[in-house]
Design goal:
By secondary structure, this protein is an alpha/beta fold. Helices cover 28% and strands 27% of the residues. The longest helix is centred in the first third of the chain and has 34 residues, at 6-39.
C-alpha cells in the first residue's frame, strides 16, 4: 500500500507548475528571439547602448485609412527625430466580435484590414509592435505572430526594447458599465475574472522586479481617467476600464514604468495611478496619436518618461 504525504504532494505540485512556467517562459523567449530576428535591419530600432527611446503610439484606427494616411504624412513632415518603434494598441478593425457570425469569414480575410494598416505604417521604416483589440480578428489572439515584414504581434509576449526595458502586450477588453450596469460587452473576455485569469499567466512569465516594463494593453485601468467615456446621448460616464489592471499597476514587484492603452476614444490623455504613468494616445479614427519619449540618466539604472506629446493631426496640419 502506498501512502501519500500531503505536504510532499504540495511541494511536488509547486515544482511541477514551476517547471511548466519555465517551459512557457522559454517558449516565449524563443518567440521573441524570432521576432527580433524578424525585425532585424529595420530602421529606427535601438541597441543596448542607447539611453533614449522615442515611441509612436497609435490606437483605435477602426479601418480609417484616410486618417491613418494623415498621421503618416504628419510624422514624415513634422517629426524630425528618430522614432525607435511604433506601438499599436489594438482595434485595427470594426468587427462585432460579440456576434458569432462575424467569425464566419476565413482568417486571412478577417485580418486584411489590420494588414493593410500595418503596411501603411511600414512606410515610416520603423519596427512595429502591436496587440489586438476587441474589434479585431480572433486569430490575432492565437496563431498569428506577424502579418507583415516589419511588424510583430506581441499579444501575451514580452519584447526587449533596450537594455533594462521591455514591452509586454495583452489585448482585448472587459465589459463597460454605466452606474454599475453593463453598457457594452467585453471581448474576448466576458468578465473581469476571465481577464484576470488569462493575464496572471502572462504576468507570472514576464513581469519581474529586475526589468522595467511598458505594459501595452487595449483596455486601461478602471480607476484611471483615461478609461472613462462620455457620449451626448449617454450623459452618464461610461467606465470602460479593468479593475484588475489597477492591481497590476499597484504591485511594485511588477516594475511597470507606464501602462499604455487605447479602447476609450474620449479618454485621450495622461494620468497617474499608484505612481504609474497611464497613457491613452486617443483614436486615430478621431485624429489623435502620441509621441512618447523615454530616457535613462547618467547612471543608466532606470528608465523614466521624459515627455508625452499628444497630437491631433487634424489641427496640427492646419
Amino acid at each position: 500500500m502506498i501512502f501519500f504525504n500531503d505536504t510532499k504532494f504540495d511541494i511536488l505540485s509547486e515544482s511541477f507548475y514551476s517547471k511548466l512556467s519555465q517551459i512557457e517562459k522559454n517558449k516565449s523567449m524563443e518567440e521573441v528571439k524570432k521576432a527580433e530576428e524578424h525585425l532585424s535591419g529595420s530602421k529606427g530600432s535601438t541597441d543596448s547602448t542607447d539611453s533614449e527611446l522615442t515611441l509612436l503610439l497609435v490606437s483605435d484606427i477602426h479601418g480609417a485609412t484616410e486618417e491613418l494616411d494623415k498621421l503618416i504624412a504628419h510624422c514624415k513632415e513634422k517629426i524630425k527625430e528618430r522614432i525607435n518603434y511604433v506601438i499599436v494598441l489594438g482595434d485595427f478593425d470594426n468587427l462585432n466580435n460579440d456576434d458569432p457570425d462575424s467569425h464566419m469569414e476565413p482568417s486571412s480575410k478577417l485580418e486584411s484590414i489590420a494588414r493593410e494598416e500595418l503596411l501603411k505604417l511600414e512606410s515610416l521604416s520603423v519596427p512595429i509592435l502591436y496587440i489586438p483589440g476587441n474589434h479585431d480578428a480572433p486569430s490575432l489572439y492565437t496563431d498569428k505572430p506577424t502579418l507583415t515584414k516589419q511588424s510583430v504581434n506581441i499579444q501575451g509576449k514580452a519584447y526587449k526594447l533596450a537594455e533594462g526595458i521591455q514591452i509586454v502586450g495583452f489585448g482585448g477588453s472587459v465589459p463597460g458599465y454605466i452606474k454599475g450596469k453593463e453598457h457594452w460587452p467585453g471581448w474576448p473576455y466576458k468578465s473581469e475574472e476571465e481577464y484576470a485569469t488569462k493575464f496572471k499567466e502572462i504576468a507570472q512569465i514576464h513581469l519581474n522586479y529586475t526589468t522595467q516594463t511598458l505594459l501595452a494593453t487595449h483596455v486601461g485601468p478602471f480607476s484611471s481617467s483615461t478609461s472613462r467615456d462620455t457620449f451626448e446621448k449617454f450623459p452618464e460616464i461610461i467606465k470602460g476600464g479593468c479593475k484588475y489592471l489597477d492591481e497590476v499597476n499597484m504591485k511594485e514587484e511588477n516594475n511597470i514604468l507606464a501602462n499604455l492603452h487605447g479602447h476609450i476614444h474620449e479618454g485621450t490623455g495622461r494620468a497617474n495611478l499608484h505612481r504609474k504613468e497611464i497613457i491613452n494616445p486617443g483614436s486615430v479614427k478621431q485624429g489623435n496619436f502620441a509621441i512618447l519619449r523615454l530616457g535613462r540618466g547618467p547612471s543608466l539604472q532606470r528608465w523614466d518618461v521624459k515627455s508625452l506629446e499628444l497630437i491631433s493631426f487634424d489641427y496640427a496640419s492646419e
